């Protein structure tokens, strides 16, 4: 077709894609151009991202798109949060790129609080405390004297890094910078005070840019390899979760009294509300919610929940035992298994980066006074029910934080395809669940590119386009009583 396409490079923690998006008869149409694995690489005792492999795959995807489509109007990258690349003054990377599950951050929060008290960090940033946050990675690097930090001249988040490879230009985009725990959410610029109190090199943190503008064009060396000569790079909301939230199919934006919340469902489940202002108060700190940056100055008040990670990792560990089953079979067996045989809190530390997930669950069952799972079905079901129970607890906290009832839960992203989980969520939370779009992150990325080129006017307009372009499915709550008992037991885990 002749309509210009926008290319979204969407990198998740387990796979990446290049997706082409265009307007066809007033609908947003998405086509997957290239999909590739994103597997961590262990070097000595550390976990790294294979950024060279990712870049090769991205270029492969761009080249395929250039061959497939007549006009490529723009390109933009979104990725997972918190991880970063350091570059020197000769435009070289200063070292390998760590994975947020790398063990060097174990205990780093406590070390950091010894320098700046927890409460002061929260007041400055409004962010939830997670060991994987950039701040604790940098504190570990600083205290351990990592050379790559000492010789750094520039700090880039993952999306910024790939934009830099494409254009040769350095930038720091606001939504992903907001996941570092070094950004002041009121000004959406770095907290220079925190940076200096942690004795981090201030010069590497350049001013933060809001999404929606053009960074530059594909530089000649990359154009020669991809065929994308002079194509603009438009900075989307480079944090994947921020892009996904843009694609929630509602008809308002950052409402005063939110009556909907979202769950961006993938490796993680990010559950929260979109607000006009950050909520930095004692309650938010106590419940460990985060005020991450959304599009156009909005706030994503949300909580990280351990997501489908456990479900995915059960499969990995069964694969090692040559006993893996397909995703569909896993869901079927979960459906057939007896409810609440095994309660799993997806946010238990034991599940962050175990060598073997099934072993971790078996020992967790023992530790929490539960029977060892007797079948794969029990394992699968436990992983899904645990999520639904966490959603229920999280919804309650969200309602306290925003001060009103939330009527509808929007599940977007890959996990919205799991109908069993959607129905469990509706039942456990006693709320209507609207599932879809599946490709929320890519759709949100492309919507911002379309705003950048003037094809779309506003977020409300973008959401209307997304709502009419992609199907959603509604799940009504039923059968709450069984979940009430389980929720009580869950609390005591
Ligand atoms: C989801 C996500 C989350 C972030 C986690 C780690 O893909 O971006 O929002 O907390 O990954 O970066």
Automatic annotation (TrEMBL):
Protein name (database record): Rhamnulokinase family protein
The keyword Aminoacyl-tRNA synthetase appears for this protein: no
CDD domains found in the cross-reference section: ASKHA_NBD_FGGY_RhaB-like (cd07771)
Protein family: Belongs to the FGGY kinase family.
Pfam families: FGGY_C (PF02782), FGGY_N (PF00370)
Keyword terms: ATP-binding, Disulfide bond, Kinase, Nucleotide-binding, Rhamnose metabolism, Transferase
Domain Carbohydrate kinase FGGY N-terminal residue range list: 6-246
Record-linked InterPro entries: ATPase_NBD, Carb_kinase_FGGY, FGGY_C, FGGY_N, Rhamnulokinase
Domain Carbohydrate kinase FGGY C-terminal per the UniProt entry, residue ranges: 261-451
């Amino acid at each position: 077709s002749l309509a210009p396409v926008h290319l979204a490079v969407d990198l998740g923690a387990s796979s990446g894609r290049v997706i082409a998006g265009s307007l066809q008869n007033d609908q947003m149409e998405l086509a997957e151009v290239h999909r590739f694995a994103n597997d961590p690489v262990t070097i000595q005792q550390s976990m790294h991202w294979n950024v060279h492999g990712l870049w090769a795959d991205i270029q492969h995807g761009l080249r395929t798109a250039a061959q497939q489509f007549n006009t490529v109007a723009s390109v933009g990258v979104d990725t997972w949060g918190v991880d970063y690349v350091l570059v020197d003054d000769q435009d070289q990377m200063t070292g390998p790129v760590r994975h947020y599950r790398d063990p060097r951050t174990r205990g780093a929060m406590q070390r950091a609080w010894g320098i700046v008290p927890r409460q002061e960090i929260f007041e400055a940033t409004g962010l939830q405390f997670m060991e994987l946050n950039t701040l604790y990675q940098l504190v570990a690097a600083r205290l351990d004297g990592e050379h790559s930090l000492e010789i750094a001249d520039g700090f880039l988040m993952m999306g910024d890094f790939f934009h830099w490879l494409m254009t040769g230009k350095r930038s720091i985009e606001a939504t992903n910078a907001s996941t570092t725990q070094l950004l002041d959410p009121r000004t959406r610029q770095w907290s220079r005070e925190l940076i200096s109190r942690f004795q981090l090199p201030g010069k590497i943190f350049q001013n933060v840019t809001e999404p929606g503008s053009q960074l530059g064009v594909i530089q000649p060396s990359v154009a020669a390899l991809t065929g994308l000569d002079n194509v603009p790079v438009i900075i989307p909301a480079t944090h994947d979760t921020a892009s996904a939230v843009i694609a929630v199919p509602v008809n308002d934006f950052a409402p005063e009294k939110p009556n909907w919340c979202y769950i961006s469902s993938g490796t993680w489940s990010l559950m929260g509300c979109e607000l006009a202002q950050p909520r930095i108060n004692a309650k938010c700190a106590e419940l460990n919610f985060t005020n991450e940056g959304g599009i156009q100055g909005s706030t994503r008040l949300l909580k990280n929940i351990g997501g489908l990670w456990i479900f995915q990792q059960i499969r990995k560990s069964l694969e090692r035992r040559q006993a893996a089953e397909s995703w569909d079979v896993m869901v079927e067996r979960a459906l057939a298994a007896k409810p609440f045989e095994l309660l799993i809190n997806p946010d238990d530390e034991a599940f962050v980066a175990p060598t073997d997930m099934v072993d971790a669950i078996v020992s967790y069952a023992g530790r929490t006074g539960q029977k060892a799972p007797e079948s794969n079905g029990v394992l699968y079901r436990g992983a899904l029910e645990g999520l639904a129970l966490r959603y229920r607890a999280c919804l309650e906290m969200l309602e306290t934080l925003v001060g009103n009832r939330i009527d509808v839960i929007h599940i977007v992203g890959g996990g919205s395809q799991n109908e069993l989980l959607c129905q469990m969520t509706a039942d456990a939370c006693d709320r209507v669940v609207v599932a879809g779009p599946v490709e929320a992150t890519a759709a949100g990325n492309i919507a911002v590119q379309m705003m950048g080129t003037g094809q779309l006017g506003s977020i409300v307009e973008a959401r209307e386009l997304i709502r009419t372009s992609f199907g959603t499915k509604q799940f009504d709550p039923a059968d709450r009583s069984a979940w009430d008992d389980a929720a009580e037991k869950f609390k005591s885990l």
